[in-house]
Amino acid sequence: KIPYKLYKLQNFSDFELLSRDCMQEKFGQQFTEYGNSGQNQHGIDVINSTGTICIQCKNYKTASHLISRLDDDFKRALEHFPDMKLFIITTALDNNTKLNDAIISLGKIPDNLQRDVTIEFYTWQRIEEMVLCSSKLHNRYRDLYLGRNYSSTNTQPDNILMLPKITVIGF
Asked: What is the enclosing helix (H) or strand (E) of 91?
């Protein structure tokens, strides 16, 4: 069981940065945001330098909203990124069976049956676990433990008791 709970991020751009940072830590390679909000991002938000790993970040409030977008985002990514081997979906939603069923159905899309792109799904609980098991991520996002609205543009805390920096050994 996770000893702390992270407060969920309120805006999509900070959630994309958190997702990017988690995947950089997991895969040990650089990822970058793919375009900006309002641009045609071809179904993804974050990508690695070779285009083999694409990430779609969904900071939605309801599962139905997320599910309604998954199919189209995945199809657009399949079409635009021919070298994609792994499609990762991150969400601020908690895990539930409807989301899991929607992810399973993505793997059955005819274009993917030909390409065999692996799909990974990270709910808020998995993201929380990644942050808490990594010293680097924990120290960067520790404001979230306290309910402070983390913002990538605000690096100085305002009159708030900060959790100490930690070192995590192993997983």
From this structure: strand 86-91
